[in-house]
C-alpha cells in the first residue's frame, strides 16, 4: 500500500469513529443519567415525542411513558441503576440511525436482568436524539458485564 492509500484509510476510520461517537452520545447520556439518578440528563437524550416500549415474556409489546420513566429515575439514589451495554451495530442513512445494544441491568449492584435494546435515533438541529427504544428483558442466560 502506498502512503496516500494508508492516509485515506486512516482518515476514513477517524471520521467513521467520530460519527459513531456522536450517534452513541445520547445513548451513553441516557445510561449515565440513570446511573447518576439525573433526570435532566436522561431527558436530554430523547427527542420530543420519543417512544419507549418493551417486548414482554408473552411476546406482546408494552408501551411506557417517557416522562414516567424520567420521573422514576429521580426516585433512585446515585449508583442504584446501572445498565451496561455493548454497541453491536450502528446503521445510518442521513439523519436516521439504528443502534443495537445487548445489555445487563444492575439494580443496587446486583444483576437484575438482561436483554437487548434497539434504538432509533434522529438528528435534529445538528444533534442526535433517541426517537424510539424497544427492548427485551429476561432473567435467564444473562452474562455479567463489567
Spatial gap, N to C terminus:
39 Å
Give start-end ranges of low-pLDDT stretches: 9-16
Task: Write down the overall geometry.
Answer: globular
Listing every helix as H and every strand as E from the N terminus to the C terminus, the arrangement reads HHEEHEEEEE
Radius of gyration: 17 Å
- The number of helical runs is 3
User: What is the oligomer described by this structure?
Assistant: single chain
Average pLDDT confidence is 90
Strand content: 35-45%
Determine the structural class based on helices, strands and strand pairing.
alpha+beta
What would your notes on this structure say?
The structure is a single chain. The chain is of the alpha+beta class. It is 33% helix and 42% strand. The protein has 3 helices and 7 strands, in the order ααββαβββββ. It has helices at 3-35, 39-44, 66-74; strands at residues 46-55, 61-64, 81-85, 89-93, 96-107, 110-124, 127-136. Strands 1, 2, 3, 4, 5, 6 and 7 form a 7-stranded mixed beta sheet that branches. The longest helix is centred in the first third of the chain and has 33 residues, at 3-35. 19% of the residues are buried. The model is unreliable at 9-16 (pLDDT under 50).
